[in-house]
Amino acid sequence: MYTAIGYAAQSSTSPLAPMSFQRRSLRPDDVFIEILYCGVCHSDIHQARNEWGIAVYPLMPGHEIVGRVSAVGGQVTRHQVGDLVGVGCMVDSCRHCEACRQNVEQYCLEGPTMTYATPDRVDGSNTLGGYSSSIVVSEHFVLRIPQGLEPASAAPILCAGITTYSPLKHHGVGPGHKVGVLGMGGLGHMGIKFAKALGAEVTLFTRSAAKAEEARRQGADHVVVSTDAEQMRAAAGRFDFLLDTIPVQHDLNPYLETLKFGGVHILVGLIEPVEPPLHAANLVMQRRVLAGSLIGGIAETQEVLEFCAEHGISCDIEMLDIRNINQAYERMIAGDVKYRFVIDMATLQA
């Protein structure tokens, strides 16, 4: 067993606070990682406050993890001591169902083991995430951080990055396509970068005209202010794909009308139920598709890391002292971060 320290919530109403705990001893295929950086995702807040009704306490968030390997199990072949590695949203799956065999473990038919707040498949213990000094993970779910990626800004690629890259790749986005990205937070700004790097013409849909200059800096070719009825009418029937990163309930109907016939509106946020109701005619009359997408498999997550290194893509981050994590949560809720907090784990020892 390894003694670790981290920040955890003890209940849905308690703030995150320091906690000492035990990481398991290495299994034959395990990698022990000393954590250097961990991104802060909005889903961390949902889970810590049990807003999805599935939290298990103590709950230690964190699934955008970058660190160094400090020990390996006897059967490990992919990683060695000293390697710079990452761990994303999953730490295990059944590995034998149809989804796992297709390398899309996020859709494991028996349910993936998430990096935190999920029972370990071997001993049943509650997984504890990356707001901590270390983590032990099966080598299959450990990613290699390529040379050329700055470690801190690489951390959010393991969630915000793969969440936006995976649907663009799955739906074949490329040169000649017109892509609209809805929202420009942690996910949206990465979606803009990826769609542009894949060769698409990219438009940001935003409620704020003040974001136009920033959107173009991120790579957007155009900006549509969604609260401007005239701009939305002018956008009707223009887009092949919409990547919807808006994290709260919103009216999908005006956006669907901006798709070409056969266009695809991709949801990556858990906004259920859809409210206000969807007008079926917006789909049926133009053979449009409303699709969903959840993170990405391990092979595709490695692919997006390599893609980012090749194209010079990184997440825009603000470094965070872990002692300020509760204030950071409030700032995230207020939209006061561009675009992702990343915890410097050196502050855990301070």
Write the layout of secondary structure elements.
Layout: E1 2-8, E2 17-23, E3 30-39, H1 42-48, E4 65-72, E5 84-87, E6 90-92, H2 98-101, E7 113-114, E8 134-138, E9 143-144, H3 151-154, H4 160-170, E10 178-182, H5 186-197, E11 201-206, H6 212-218, E12 222-225, H7 229-234, E13 239-244, H8 253-256, E14 259-267, H9 281-284, E15 289-292, H10 298-311, E16 317-321, H11 325-333, E17 340-344
Parallel strand pairs: 10-11, 10-13, 11-12, 13-14, 14-15, 16-17
Antiparallel strand pairs: 1-2, 3-4, 3-8, 3-17, 4-5, 5-9, 6-7
Helix pairs in contact: 4-5
Question: Summary?
Answer:
With about 350 residues, the chain is of the alpha/beta class.
CATH architecture of the largest domain: Alpha-Beta Complex
Can you identify the CATH superfamily of the largest domain? Medium-chain alcohol dehydrogenases, catalytic domain
Total of DSSP H or I helical runs spanning 4+ residues: 11
The largest β sheet comes out as:
7 strands, mixed
Strand content: 25-35%
Low-confidence stretches: none
- Record field, number of beta strands: 17
